[in-house]
Write a structure and sequence with these properties.
heterodimer; A: 371 residues; alpha/beta; 2 domains; 20% helix; globular; B: 490 residues; ten-stranded mixed β-sheet; 13 helices; 24 strands
Chain lengths: 371, 490
């Protein structure tokens, strides 16, 4: 793995003059980066993905799809510039993001060049918002779902450094669907979620890879009865690269989290998955599970997976499982004995494998597993 | 958690760590500090050939350049490597036979329940069939003080002796295999060990030989401010089989002592090595004072086709444990196994697990790890399963479970899976939970007191691992768990 030249990264950031949102206080963030937050040699978080291109000042993003206009509805506000959202931005931004742990999010904050605030008022249950590509390289999406409100967010992202920060208030529900079409460059994404008491967040993420694509997901369970359900499926081929790093942090007692991720890896593609369940001291009565299953269908594909548990409370039930395997030869034979060719049989089995965690038609289309 | 009768608990605390006594003997101990002269002194003291002295010095120079690893899920104040004495041996000449050994030392092993007299052990066989003879190599601080049943073993062609003897009597074997599994620059602690290792055991089992008895080494740290750096090398030739046991204890002291060992196993075609450890180094007191830092590198190489290496470990001692007995599966159809019970109580910390590196075709590995955390301890499983591109149809199954006893303990799991084979299968599953109230209730309802009930449940939890231990060890391991858990309930 390459070595990130911390001094030159800092130097570029110090020289950077923000034109967008000049009123944001960037001082502390720069201090965090200066204080050793940038990846060091042999950094555990960058064990299988080369960090250098991500921190390159000439950051090379994928060709983005067409920029889509942001839909406007009465209960949410667009853009970071307007005075009405300024208060929301200063109140919420970086509250769910651990900048020390996610230095690319810190860089995003320093260099932010476009953003959206979605603010769902208390009790509002009608929202469904589609969010496509934004017109910028360092994108920031702030989602605030107030008490007892509901929101379905459907997000498509291909190439950029995008941070999606969500706040789920007590009793609120956020359904989050993410679609990640193939990219040609270096993509970085962070989804950071704070869930309050009895709040519920669900993620359905459908991914393909990019030249280098990194998805960081950080979920903080901050109240009794808070729930997170994360599912994801990926289909990688050619020389695409996908690195999913997930951390579900149970900071409060009585939370529940379920994670289920499946991937199919073909050709020379490389799939990395790191799922962590962290249970803080006193986060008793926590129930947390994690499953990651991988199919490897080519002799040159690489799969790296690490489901982690880090537990500091005793009255908990946690489990995780990970598998790496291939298609069942008996099942393939069964299909062929009934006149279905090998290629079709493989496609059907792969579809069946991924379908366990795919519950949306657009997800199926993206992954190429329509029935 | 159910409450317990405190009076009965108090009575038990006294016998917490039965092996914690000190043997009062004269010892020649090097003053603390580490430099080239110390390395040369140890080598000269053992009358080693030039190549080995040079090997040590190379390791020492490599070590100077290395950085102490910090990735473990353990915390401890920085170790001052200049404050440790790197060599300590009972005074006087090296005993030639067990009869020459200081009676105080013999009494020590007697007290620890380790039979150092062949007659006694043999008599045991005559009386009951339960206790087959076990050949013992006893290592006291930096030296081996004696090895039993050497003659019986020699008749079978098996070499079992101290490392120092092996260097003199079988220099070719030592030179061929030393450092071939764990290179001297493998990691910080292995490099340190390579520079200053003082003794240890050497086993060579010739072709098509089944070692006629269990072999065992018993490690004892006695001197204050010393570290123990032993080296074990086991070679099983084609078609050979050997079962090797390892036990260890140390006195109770308020300061920490370092134990950095290296174990290398080599299995050639169709050979099998079974390596069992019951690790009971002094764990420190209930406030976390004292105890052994157990930083050990253990690795086996399945070099031959159809070879097998099996690690079984019961880890109840040490203030800090940092060890990952591993298997490199190079031979086709070779098998690696790792069975582990790691128990931490009070302020103990353990970061332990295994690595299974699949290189050959049809290689298989099984990992069963049971972690039990009690008190304010921290217990982490860290493992790696790697399927390299040549490991056609390789197979791994991993199960690691953690049991939590007490509100302030911690349990972690860090399993790395790296697969580069389309036809390899890797399965990993892990659970973490506490002793369930339902199970406890059921036991108590039947008149079993809470402490016994927890002990029973824990024993059941560890059953899969104990089953792999030689019988005597399994009994000892069960008892150790009971003792170590005392005071953890309530």
């Amino acid at each position: 793995m390459g070595l990130v030249d911390a001094a030159s990264v800092i130097e570029t950031l110090e020289a950077f003059e923000p034109r967008y949102l000049p009123w944001l206080d960037r001082h502390d963030t720069l201090a965090v980066l200066k204080d050793g937050a940038l990846p060091r040699p042999n950094s555990e978080a960058w064990k299988y993905t080369d960090p250098v291109p991500f921190f390159d000042p000439q950051y090379d993003v994928s060709d983005r799809g067409d920029t889509t206009p942001i839909p406007t509805t009465p209960s949410h506000t667009v853009g970071f510039e307007s005075d009405t959202v300024r208060k929301l931005v200063t109140t919420y931004i970086n509250q769910a993001v651990d900048q020390r742990r996610y230095p690319l999010a810190a860089i995003n904050y320093l260099k932010i060049d476009c953003g959206v605030v979605i603010h769902v008022q208390p009790g509002d249950k009608t929202e469904s918002i589609e969010l496509g590509e934004l017109d910028g390289q360092f994108q920031r999406v702030l989602v605030i779902v107030e008490a007892e409100a509901r929101l379905e967010l459907i997000e498509t992202t291909t190439g950029s450094n995008r941070i999606v920060e969500c706040f789920v208030a007590p009793g609120a529900k956020l359904r989050h669907r993410r679609l990640q079409p193939p990219g040609t460059g270096v993509d970085y994404n962070l989804v950071a979620i704070n869930i309050a008491e009895n709040g519920s967040y669900s993620l359905s993420q459908y991914s393909t890879g990019a030249r280098l694509r990194r998805n960081d997901i950080s979920v903080n369970i901050l109240g009794n009865g808070a729930e997170a359900e994360l599912t994801g499926a990926w289909q990688l081929n050619e020389a695409l690269h996908l690195d999913n790093q997930i951390s579900v942090n149970h900071m409060f007692a009585g939370g529940t989290s379920r994670q289920h991720f499946r991937g199919n890896v073909d050709d020379r593609a490389k799939s990395i998955f790191n799922g962590r369940i962290y249970i803080a001291p006193n986060a008793q009565q926590t129930n947390a599970t994690l499953t990651n299953r991988n199919l490897v269908v080519s002799s040159e594909a690489e799969v790296y997976t690490k489901p982690e548990l880090e537990i500091y409370a005793n009255d908990v039930v946690c489990s995780h499982g990970a598998t790496v395997g291939q298609l069942d030869t008996d099942a393939l034979f069964y299909f062929q004995s009934r006149g279905i060719g090998e290629a079709d049989a493989r496609a059907i089995l792969i579809r069946g494998f991924l379908n366990e965690v795919v519950s949306h038609a657009d997800g199926r289309t993206l992954l190429g597993i329509e029935t | 958690m159910a409450g317990t009768d405190n009076n009965s608990l108090d009575g038990l605390v006294g016998r917490d760590y039965a092996a914690g006594f000190v043997t009062d003997i004269e010892a020649d101990t090097l003053p603390p500090g580490l430099d080239e002269d110390v390395v040369r002194f140890i080598s000269a003291r053992k009358d080693e050939p030039e190549w080995l002295t040079q090997w040590r010095l190379d390791a020492y120079h490599g070590w100077l350049e290395m950085i102490e690893p910090s990735w473990g899920q353990v915390q401890f104040p920085a170790i001052d490597y200049q404050s440790i004495s790197y060599y300590s041996a009972p005074s006087g000449d090296q005993p030639k036979t067990l009869d020459d050994v200081d009676p105080e030392i013999l009494a020590t092993y007697e007290k620890l329940g380790i039979p150092l007299h062949e007659q006694a052990a043999l008599a045991g066989v005559a009386e009951t069939q339960q206790r087959p003879p076990v050949a013992v190599d006893a290592v006291f601080d930096s030296v081996s003080i004696g090895t039993t049943f050497k003659e019986t073993l020699r008749e079978a062609g098996v070499i079992f002796c101290s490392f120092t003897e092996a260097v003199h009597d079988y220099p070719d074997l030592v030179r061929k295999y030393l450092g071939s599994v764990v290179p001297r620059g493998d990691n910080f602690f292995a490099a340190l060990n390579s520079a200053v290792f003082s003794d240890g055991s050497f086993v060579y089992v010739p072709e098509n030989t089944r070692c006629p008895m269990e072999l065992s080494t018993y490690f004892r740290i006695n001197e204050r401010n010393t570290g123990q750096f032993e080296r074990t090398l086991i070679i099983a030739e084609r078609g050979a089989y050997v079962s090797y046991l390892e036990g260890c204890t140390a006195p109770m002291r308020d300061e920490n002592q370092l134990h950095a060992a290296v174990v290398e196993l080599i299995a050639l075609d169709d050979a099998e090595i079974k390596y069992s450890t019951v690790q009971n180094w002094y764990p420190g007191d209930e406030d976390g004072r004292g105890g052994i830092y157990n930083f050990v590198t253990k690795r086996g190489a399945c070099r031959g086709d159809r070879s097998k290496i099996s690690w079984t470990q019961v880890e109840t001692g040490s203030a800090i444990t940092w060890k990952y007995p591993s298997v490199v599966l190079r031979g086709d159809d070779s098998v690696g196994e790792f069975y582990s019970v790691a128990l931490t109580n009070n302020h103990q910390q353990a970061d332990t697990g295994t690595k299974m590196v699949h290189l050959g075709k049809n290689t298989r590995s099984t990992i069963i790890s049971k972690g039990i955390s009690a008190g304010q301890s921290s217990n982490a499983y860290r493992g790696l399963v790697r399927m390299n591109p040549g490991a056609e149809k390789a197979r791994n199954y991993t199960q690691c479970d953690s049991l939590l006893i007490g509100e302030k303990c911690a349990a972690h799991t860090f399993p790395y899976i790296e697969s580069r084979r389309p036809d390899g299968i890797v399965e990993h599953e892990a659970t973490t939970s506490r002793v369930s109230d339902d199970q406890l209730f059921l036991c108590r309802q039947r008149g079993i007191d809470p402490e016994k009930a927890v002990s029973m449940i824990v024993n059941g939890f560890c059953k899969d691992v104990f089953r792999e231990l030689p019988m005597e060890f399994a009994v000892e391991a069960g008892k150790l768990l009971e003792v170590s858990l005392e005071g953890a309930v309530g």
